[in-house]
Amino acid sequence: MARRGAKKKYYYFDINFLFIVISLLVFGLLMIYSTSSYEANMEFGDAAFYFRKQLGATVVGLLFMILVAVIPYRVYRLDFLPEKLHRLPIYVAMFFLLLLLTPLAYSANGATRWLDLGVSVQPAEIAKLAVIVYLAAYTTRYPKAIQTAKGMLHFMFWPLVLAVMIYGISSNLSSAIIVVGIAAVMLFVATPQYKRYILIVLVVLLVAAAVVAFVLNQDPATSQLGYRGDRIRAWVDPEAYADSKGYQTLQSLYAIGSGGFWGKGLGESVQKLGFIPEAQNDMIFSIICEELGLLGATVIIVLFIALLYRCLYIATNAKDLFGAMLVVGVMAHIAIQVILNIAVVTNTIPNTGISLPFISYGGSSVVFLLMEVGLVLGVARSIEMKDE
Q1: CA–CA separation, 108 vs 170, rounded Å?
Q2: Of the candidates 250, 258, 244, which has an alpha carbon nearest to the alpha carbon of residue 276?
Q3: What is the pLDDT of residue 374?
Q4: pTM, whole model, 2 decimals?
Q5: Distance (Å, whole) CA 383 – CA 385
Q6: In the chain, pLDDT over 70 holds for what percent of residues?
Q7: Nearest-10 Cα torsion for 264, 351, 248, 106
């Protein structure tokens, strides 16, 4: 029997966070059907082909989300393993990446990024989740060591190796950038040396500017830079490459511009009628702008901002450092992909093929994103609240 006047403890459940995730998923399914129905009908004779596949992946993802959320998140630290096996998540991710070199791998749209395991799986999505779990655990085991320059290098070593493998094996530059970005944000949060980060950002920007200047000074006819160089040139002057690398970007910009403030109406896009190839994938935000206008695009951006705010709230109130860093990793992943996807669609950066979380078509992406959501919900569940 509780003592009179004792404070009652209860555990927190962030219904707002879950509501935002469900809203994004429902909106994504709606837009996938609207965006892909024409192409699906022409190619498969079934307007709901992509919608059904995404719905199935979403259901599977929700089941995994619940499973991950109900398991105490501290289990993912793998403290029951010997010290030498603490890097198991990264090794597992690398193992799946190496499978790309075997007959299990298959290509689509000129890229070898999928494993045929009965269902299509992108190892890069496994790698993102593995990096988040591994670095969160690493931070809690060596909180003082990562404050030093040597410790920071150790922290970034495996993510960099993984990023190189992703790019080298699958030529998936966007996922490689995201893996490094997740690691960089987690390191930034875990360490107080902000001057170092300012210097690193300046160096990265200068290197990027130098690379762009170098590419633009090359003769396209004799350049050895291949399609990467063409993408940079098409980014700077998409009209000059309207029949090749600049085509998708121009059509995307046409879609955004034609939507105006209110949009043409749901299902009324013209650009999805074969003008933007596979518009349900990376360029779905442009169709959102065309059909729902600036207003619809703003609502989606606000939803993502609210989602990130809820992540920040959960991370701030997490019971321990491991839980906080897990949520920071998930928050970094979502934020980086949202920013880069919108930047690509609006031609702010070169086209790198980055999907919009929870909205773009992609089974592997939504399943592993929902597993990350499960991690966040698991951390939120551990927050103890007290009645005053």
Answers
A1: 11
A2: 250
A3: 96
A4: 0.90
A5: 7
A6: 83
A7: -110
The three-state (H, E, C) secondary structure of the chain, written as one string: CCCCCCCCEEECCCHHHHHHHHHHHHHHHHHHHHHHHHHHHHHHCCCCHHHHHHHHHHHHHHHHHHHHHHCCHHHHHCCCCCHHHCCHHHHHHHHHHHHHHCCCEEEECCEEEEEECCCEECHHHHHHHHHHHHHHHHHHHCCCHHHCHHHHHHHHHHHHHHHHHHHHHHCCHHHHHHHHHHHHHHHHHHCCCHHHHHHHHHHHHHHHHHHHHHHHCCCCCCCCCHHHHHHHHHHHCHHHHCCCCCHHHHHHHHHHHHHCCCCCCCCCCCCCCCCCCCCCCCCHHHHHHHHHHHHHHHHHHHHHHHHHHHHHHHHHHCCCHHHHHHHHHHHHHHHHHHHHHHHHHCCCCCCCCCCCCCCCCCHHHHHHHHHHHHHHHHHHHCCEEECC
Place of tokens 């949060």: 189
- Both tokens of 54, joined, read 């995404």
> Tokens in use for 184?
């960089």
